[in-house]
Amino acid sequence: MPLGARCRVGPDGVTGTNFALWAGGAEAVELCLFDPDGTERRLPLTELTHEIWHGFVPGIGAGQRYGYRVHGRWDPWTGARWNPAKLLLDPYARAVDGDFTLPPEVYGHVRDWPQQHVADTVRDERDSAPYVPKGVVVQDDDDWSDDRRPKTPWQDSVIYELHVKGFTKLHPGVPEQLRGTYAGLAHPAAVEHLVRLGVTAVELLPVHQFAHEDHLLRRGLRNHWGYNSIGYFAPHAGYSSSGTTGQQVGEFKRMVRALHAAGIEVILDVVYNHTAEAGELGPTLSLKGIDNRGYYRLQSDARRYSDYTGCGNTLHVVQPQVLRLITDSLRYWVTEMGVDGFRFDLAAALARSMHDVDMLSPFLAVIAQDPVLRRVKLIAEPWDVGNGGYQVGAFPPLWTEWNDRYRDAVRDFWRGALPDVRDLGYRLSGSSDLYAWGGRRPYASVNFVTAHDGFTLRDLVTYERKHNEANGEGNRDGTHDNRSWNCGTEGETDDPDINALRLRQQRNLLTTLLLSTGVPMLVAGDEMGRTQGGNNNAYCQDNATGWLDWTLPDAPGRAQLLALTRRLLALRHDHPVLRRRAFFSGRPQGTDGLRDLAWFTAEGTEMTEPDWYAPTATLGLYLSGRDIPGRDERGEQITDDSFLAVLHAGPRPLDFRLPGPPWAETYELVVDTGREDQSQAPGTLHRGGGTLTVGARSMVLLRVGG
């Protein structure tokens, strides 16, 4: 104990490293140590305790490269796939040196066997050691005593999803040798953008060590996003500027410290649902060769893998050793690497018991009682690709969720595809229909309009069809359900009217997102109009398509879009009515009959039941700042300004009658998405009971006065 490779002092005072590997059904385990020139030395691990093979090796310290060879039966028909010819990565390796290139030698079976339907049953006897990365022993030398975690409350959080490499690869303010790395993200030029924008947390696309898929390598492409993990304790070596024999660990920690010092939390997008070993025809890199049956869900025909992920395999989380691997990894990233939370890719796959998704599953139960993990931010992608896998709104308290129903409703409203505004009303006000149970709060909803997977914000208003030809899959990959509108022309155009409309639609979507109740999530570059040329699945575009173009603010309208985003986030920060900790009641709060939340038609009357079912392109939303539940840090009642938001998706301007007393005597214009330059908007006063002309396809926010 613990599992993995840990430097320590032996009982006789000699320093060395203890190696420990769980391999439940194995017959023997060899520790393989590698010199810098590649010379291999094999040491049998003869100690076996509770299915853990272990041994202390004197004189071995930080920087030592290693792997394992595990002996056992080759019987794919029963799920046994042991093959000692294959060097295996330690699942607990904290650093990885080298890259996965996937030649035939790294497959446990004969990959090129003529009869492919039985190829996975023929064992390959070639040595894979020259072709696979090695684990690296890492020194424990950091206690984090100088770090101060921001600990931003959920209701105050604003998440910014970014890719470590893509965010900084083209950043002119980051030194060239640091671009695309952890050190690049920690650079003051990169941090400054985040601070000025006003986000409170970065959500990093996967930084666990990952491998590139064989089908991509054959086409000359690489996995850019990283959703193909193989090392759950190791920061991906490709993002290190300082070295790959343990230096990547220190560089990652320094990045976290730099972001914390700027008040920004670090959330990791983690992929514990599957690994890079794919299905029965995939490579043998780690778990498959350690104990295939112990780590993966297998079908009744044990040659085959249960696949709830669409990636060939699914980790068998109900197995104690798999659950331990995941929770040990999570705790490691919190306690030793300093991160503040996790977004779980395809989290429904982790919540499956034997087959069905179960909210009382071992994984969720362990997280709920763990003294470390229950205190960090936990975000579920609440679905997988299996039957019954769609679980939006079903995860238990402690968890927040990516709310795709918010995404769909907001996209549909602004493209004119909502039959009525019932669903939109729920989404704007925190999705109480999904989350007002079991003590859950509005911040259980992570609101987003775009994510890494799908169109960028600019592409959402520029393309109606995906354009993924560069991925080499005949444009078959990526979703067909984009809910986008190209404003009349497919793709980029020089037409000034269409371009003006597209910019206005981007302002509408951003303003809606950042003023909605819940936790907003922005995608890096959307605030500047980033494009992927219509590619809605740029997972393999490790190039300019997948990198953020920092010249965008120089283009017409882009600087104003960035300025609007900063202004909206500052407004959200300054006004607690926009980041409530409790759901609205919708009931009168005082003798004057005013509600904490009220909805209005274009005629200035409160919405009635029939109004919610009637087709409309306009909705008024009144937020009362005098009725905010809870108290501030001094124990005082929280009060704020009140606001009226008017959303109008119609193609022509509209005269909206502003509610008069007792709702308001006057209204002050704060934001008008119909204007490109928002500096001209604030301060204009309108009388309660009068009319306000709202431009075609635009949104206004007014502060209540009087």
Radius of gyration: 27 Å
Q: How would you sum up the major sheet?
A: 8 strands, parallel, barrel
- Cα shape: elongated
Q: Helix count?
A: 16
Mean of residue pLDDT?
Answer: 95
What is the CA-CA span between the terminal residues? 67 Å
Structural class based on helices, strands and sheet pairing:
alpha/beta
> Helicity range of the residues?
10-25%
Strand fraction equals 15-25%
- Strand arrangement in the largest pleated sheet: 12-13-16-17-18-19-20-21
Number of strands: 29
Give the low-confidence spans: none
Word description of this protein:
It is built from 16 helices and 29 strands. The protein has 706 residues and is an alpha/beta fold. The strands form seven sheets. It has an eight-stranded parallel beta barrel with strand order 12-13-16-17-18-19-20-21. A six-stranded antiparallel beta sheet has the order 22-23-24-29-26-27, with helices on one face. A hairpin with a 5-residue loop joins strand 3 (28-34) and strand 4 (40-44). The longest helix is centred in the last third of the chain and has 20 residues, at 496-515. The N and C termini lie far apart (67 Å). The relative contact order is 0.08.
